[in-house]
Amino acid sequence: MRTPALAPLLLAACACTSLTPEASRGTTIAPDGVEIVFETRGRGEPALVLVHGWCCDRGFWRHQVETFSRERQVVTLDLAGHGESARDRGHWDLGSLAGDVVAVADQLGLERLILVGHSMGGPICLEAAARLPGRVEAVVGVDTLHDVSTPMPRETVDGMVAAFRADFEGTLARGVAAMLHEPADPDLRRWIVERASRTDRTAALVIAGGFADVDQARLLSRAKVPVRCINAEEHPPFARATAIESNRRHGDFDALLMPGVGHYPMLEKPAGFDARLRETLAGLRGAGGGRP
After folding, report:
1. Which domain holds residue 128?
2. Which of 106, 139, 233, 258 is such that its CA lies 20 to 30 A from the CA of 184?
3. Contact 265, 273 (CB under 8 A)
4. Do 28 and 93 contact (CB within 8 A), yes or no?
């Protein structure tokens, strides 16, 4: 028999649970026939479509889905070759990955959306925005688009690919450790490495090999929407410092720099990151993006 003292606690637990909408899992087909897995949670526009980076998956947005789905629709997806999505793509590049994002937006009938892209997801979102004119209201980058005028040097990319080809798991573990802020939780580091190691290795190596050929300045110019970044104050080893003034020559760009985090701010300090994302979204309403 339930005691009266437990009743308030049970009611409170039910109330808290009801604030978090249930997730709905779905699939769609990319333009080249590859099956893409996505999840959607919550209601309200503009929808947030969260796009993960290289060797990541939709689970990297777990904190943001929980927070923002209480007030709007939040969509996450696994890009082809990552997470649960199919791996049978014939041509791997950022353009085909942008097609995955467009396919999900079309499947869900999203007419007002803000794309949020982490790392590699940043340029992917810029390309997707260009393919969804009038529907994407803004792009928010997460530790990405640091200096769009300066591509990754070919020798750096080739060296990275060679290291991964020789020892994928070891290079992955060392790379993640270097990209996290020094006091990062070791359990988080292990979680990232374990999730990243599930990525299709052929896809990962081919995609990474094309990083030197990505013209981020052109992508920023073609997006035709406000672009805002939430970047680590101390930039990761493979990136330059965030060049706000230089980036503005190519589009409507601004950035917030977040201290005390590495390359995964949404996982390292989720509450602080969520506050900055909320601030960024609020600022977009006054810059022509995210109209009420």
Report:
1. 22-151+214-285
2. 139
3. yes
4. no
Q: Which residue has the tokens 């060797």?
A: 55
Say how far apart CA 220 and CA 151 lie, in whole Å. Answer: 13
159 is a domain residue: no
CATH number at residue 38: 3.40.50.1820
Q: Measured over all CA atoms, what is the biggest interatomic distance in the chain, rounded to whole angstroms?
A: 70
Which residue type, as a one-letter code, is found at position 22? E
Q: Tell me whether residue 156 is in a domain.
A: no
Q: Is 198 within the bounds of a domain?
A: no
Closest CA to 77 of 32, 116, 33, 130: 116
Q: How many CB atoms lie within 10 A of CB 17?
A: 8
| Tally of domains in the chain | 1
pLDDT, one tens digit for every residue, the chain (292 residues): 333 343 333 333 333 334 567 889 999 999 999 999 999 999 999 999 999 999 999 999 999 999 999 999 999 999 999 999 999 999 999 999 999 999 999 999 999 999 999 999 999 999 999 999 999 999 999 999 999 999 999 999 999 999 999 999 999 999 999 999 988 899 999 999 999 999 999 999 999 999 999 999 999 999 999 999 999 998 666 678 999 999 999 999 999 999 999 999 999 999 999 999 999 999 997 554 554 4
CB 69 within 8 A of CB 88: no
- Say what the alpha-carbon torsion angle 146, 104, 286, 250 is, to the nearest 10 degrees: 40
